[in-house]
């Protein structure tokens, strides 16, 4: 599902204009990005958490040049779904 699909679905379910829904969805995404950039996690009860994870420094290999490189400690964004969300997906999704 794409952002456009989400906007269409919300607009259809709520009766709100697509332009307004699109601005709202984009504002939500910007707010989450800004919060994570500042190191603040975003918690949405019943849905999940957008969190900042710390990756430790590690040694890696460049196979083509046969050299060792050090990847410094860094932070990455991650999503951790709520337990109820995970349970619902487990119960509903069929292969």
UniProtKB/TrEMBL annotation:
Annotated GO CC locations: cytosol
For the biological process aspect of GO, one term held by this record is: chromosome condensation
Q: Which SMART domains match?
A: BHL
Task: Please give the superkingdom of this protein's source.
Answer: Bacteria
Which CDD domains does the UniProt entry name for this protein? Answer: IHF_B
Annotated keywords: DNA condensation, DNA-binding
Instruction: Please identify the protein, giving its name as recorded.
Output: DNA-binding protein HU-beta
GO molecular function per UniProt: DNA binding; structural constituent of chromatin
Q: Which family does it belong to?
A: Belongs to the bacterial histone-like protein family.
**Lipid biosynthesis: is it a keyword of this entry?**
no
InterPro entries hit by this protein: Hist_DNA-bd, IHF-like_DNA-bd_dom_sf
Q: Pfam families this protein is in? A: Bac_DNA_binding
């Amino acid at each position: 599902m794409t952002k456009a699909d989400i906007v269409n679905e919300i607009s259809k379910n709520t009766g709100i204009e697509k332009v307004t829904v699109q601005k709202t969805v984009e504002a939500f995404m910007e707010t989450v990005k800004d919060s994570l950039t500042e190191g603040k996690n975003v918690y949405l009860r019943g849905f999940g958490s957008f969190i900042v994870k710390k990756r430790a420094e590690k040694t890696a290999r460049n196979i083509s040049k046969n050299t060792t490189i050090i990847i410094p400690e860094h932070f990455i964004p991650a999503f951790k779904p709520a337990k109820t969300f995970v349970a619902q997906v487990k119960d509903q999704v069929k292969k």
